């Protein structure tokens, strides 16, 4: 994109210093190297809080050495946004005895909520304060007064008339402060109770919306001699006349930037209507000024647009042409990845100008700022220190996540990672749950531990019984049929618990409310009660038979008690009489959704019930459980028939049972698949805002997941949803429920695809060309790109077969939203957008959905994956061990919906913690890990490692099989029951 340039460090390039001092931060995890003995040169640096510090460095050291010392002094992890500025525009003196360098913000990102550390936001707030005082940040009086009021609130606290007036008299925040002093005090009155961290958040929120935010003007002239100013920003190169922006050139449209003497050249990409490249020329004061601005543009482009630091250009053997300058340091994408992986510790800092002791206060928006991975923790915003809390959604949720996941920006102002144990603490703040018995776990130093180390799931809360378990396991029958039958028992127990959610928990919850229609109550409970009672009897029979099977000491002797086919045959024949009730389950799902649409009270009741701990999955998923259970019986019987020889006593009953259940599955399969698609659309509807009629007839869900979209702001993380008629792209909104706001859609009819990695220089990228719009996206890896391309091409073929050329595609699917000229959806202002949001968004909904997990782990899931997950459900006891612990702890574990749910026993009504597995890897421990036990598998994600131990070779293989189905994305063979449906 940019011309080669000389590789040097850059201390003051942002504001026009002609000589670079080499500003870049440390490599991840490294500290400044020890200073070699000998003479040291003192360097004075003025920090953003106006204090000065002296750092000693060896003579002839690059600027990077000094900059790293400053970042280490500040305990600043996200130091890549900052730089050192030398205010004198002459050469750096050889003996800089009296030289003062300024530590300043170098890169201004568009969204301050992406910062992980409160310290970073505080330093940005100080930079805004400085820009206001010196007149760099031009804005109207209302914005200026509001920003100053937040600055004062962070410095002196709540409004006091005498104190506030005295403070304004002795402190200068604006050049013309006296003219709007009354307006400042009036705004200050409204901030009662606001902490300094919250004030910083609001200050940056106002500042980032201003046109002059982060703008540093460089004087220039156009070809006609008109005086202009150029500036570099995250979006591209901007042109100003005075303080008014008159033009902008996005990075995506710029082909090349160069300079020749004092002429600055911008070469744009060819437009479809033009056969030639446009070249724009600006004249600057001198060659040095021109080169300085060119270097700033190179750095801005690399920082905001590239995935990783560009490689240096190899030195020419004979002749050099042009500059060898390259951006050095981490890009914004690398910062995000590093902060997600490193789990930086919260470091206290001092607010030099603030009279309030609040160096660790949490922003009320922190749940949206740092919600990288902990998407399902139930947490009160004030209850956990900001940077130790791995999650944070102000929405209460019954099931805490286990290990800290990753963090691309996770979500409370400061915290963002979904995997630590959680809890409904005693702190103030949002959340209406009642799970006070789930306690936030902390180490002696006060640091938060993993959820699996909570008091209810630690070794202290459960007896270590390694020898007992080993002895009992050796007494179990070795016949594989026993363990297949035991899988039937364990999964039946979980199935009964799921039915209780409908027949008991939901019944008691809505039965007391007159707003819930009696007709819906009658339909649901008349359809599920008979099924529930039938399976209760079936479970008792299976439990008795398994107790006999495993209870004899001479287990090797064959007998009638060592079979399960007779019980299955008897009960499957009885289940056939319940087919009429099973067929009504789809009607229950449709009628419940219809009632929720027509009544806000019904919708609120359903939403509130989903917040109960017992409802650990979206409620609609429970309604489909009886249909899915038929598939489980079929797969269990297939394994039994495959295991038994034809001469076995149990073979004939198992084969007859398999024939009966296969007939039932075939009879209900069409209804089942339609309901799965309908249920998935209903679940996505809760996660999306700005698209009201997602469940239109004929629409099928195909894939959802994260892709990076190339836009004017560079590569932006977006959530994409592929349906049979359109591709919708969204970003996560700053709402209490963290829903995804629709940015646009591409109708699939007439859509074409071209792989564009070479054109844009972005790995794993491809371009989608619609009728009125084109979109460039990039996947996280080659395999992810192939999955998207395969599904999009399939969807395009389906769309072209089912849609006539005369169909109005652009207006389909998003009523109420306006279409921009390029054919994408253009959302209106926040006020207008709010009118179309559902009450779910305004009042909150569960935040542990698969969509959020995909967002934080930068992956995707297809409808094929969901269908496979329906069949690959498993329950049973496992022994769990942490990476650095000694003992094994027995837990009841349920695998469903791509997650492991942990209980103390199968009798518990709700899980104590959960672990989403998307992104995890499942392997066998190596010898170096010293796990000297049989049947152990390891789950690991980045630095999080868990060991689980099963009781037999069969159960070990089954757990490995089902977990791999969740950790490996689709593009695999489907089970035989579903092949013909795709």
Care to describe what's here?
With 982 residues, the chain is of the alpha+beta class. Among the domains are: 41-105, Phosphatidylinositol 3-kinase Catalytic Subunit, Chain A, domain 1 (Ubiquitin-like (UB roll), Roll), CATH 3.10.20.90; 118-208, Acyl-CoA Binding Protein, CATH 1.20.80; 218-310 and 325-330, Roll (PH-domain like), CATH 2.30.29.30; 483-551 and 560-687, Dbl Homology Domain, Chain A; 690-802, Roll (PH-domain like), CATH 2.30.29.30; 873-966, Pleckstrin-homology domain (PH domain)/Phosphotyrosine-binding domain (PTB) (PH-domain like), CATH 2.30.29.30. Helix content is 36%, strand content 17%. The protein has 25 helices and 29 strands. The strands form six sheets. Strands 12, 13, 14, 15, 16, 17, 18, 19 and 22 form a nine-stranded mixed beta sheet that branches. The chain has a seven-stranded antiparallel beta sheet with strand order 26-25-24-23-29-28-27. Strand 1 (41-46) and strand 2 (52-57) form a beta hairpin. Helix 2 (118-134) packs across helix 6 (196-207), helix 12 (518-551) crosses helix 14 (579-598) and helix 14 (579-598) crosses helix 15 (600-610). The longest helix is centred in the last third of the chain and has 37 residues, at 651-687. Mean pLDDT is 75; it is low at 1-29, 357-467, 552-558, 804-845 and 970-982. Residues 480-671 form the DH domain. This is FERM, ARHGEF and pleckstrin domain-containing protein 1. One of its GO terms (cellular component) is dendritic spine. It comes from Takifugu rubripes. It is a peripheral membrane protein.
